Amino acid sequence: MNGTIQRSVRILASVLVIALAVAAAPGPRPAPAVPAVVLLTMDGVRWDYPQREALPAFSSMAAAGWTARRLTPPFPSLTFPSHSTLATGASPARHGIVANNFLDRASGRRFSDEREASWLEVPPLWALAERAGLKAAVRSWPCSQGAWNGTAPSFFQGYDGDARDGETVSWILGLLHRPAPDRPRLIMAWTRGADHAGHGEGPDSEGVRKAMREADRLLAGLRAGIAALGPSTPVDLLVVSDHGMAPVNRMVDVVKVIPKAGYYPFIATSGPLCNVYVKTEAQRRAVAASLGRLPQGILSMTRAEVEKRFGYGGDRMGDFVLLCPPGATFASFSRKGDRDVPRGMHGYDPSLPDMGGIFYAEGPQFPSGKTLAEVRAADIAPTVCAVLRIPPPPSAAGRNLLVGSP
Question: Quick one: how far is CA 385 from the chain centroid?
Answer without folding.
Answer: 14
